[in-house]
Amino acid sequence: QVQVVESGGGLVQAGGSLRLSCAVSGSIFDYMAWYRQAPGKQRELVAGIGRGGSRDYADSVKGRFTISRDYAKNTVYLQMNSLKPEDTAVYYCDARNLGGRDYWGQGTQVTVSS
Asked: What are phi and psi of 88, to 5 degrees?
């Protein structure tokens, strides 16, 4: 059974930093990513990382966020620096297995105050 467990969200002032973690168990995952969804908006890709280490970033977070992956622990991290109020959202971890199936975490709230 696949489990996706996120942690690390919280409240931070603008300009601050947070680090999100997502630990996944139960399968081998090809692609792991972070998405976010703000109230009244669609869920959007924030950052993703493939098994080979290739990375994708939304334009809005380039230069501020860094995604990394610990293959031994099957864990993906999102280091978020220089946070802005518009980064406020629920952040979701997505793990895609070799068969292309997506597994989602329950979400973690990130709130950035101005």
From this structure: -60, 125
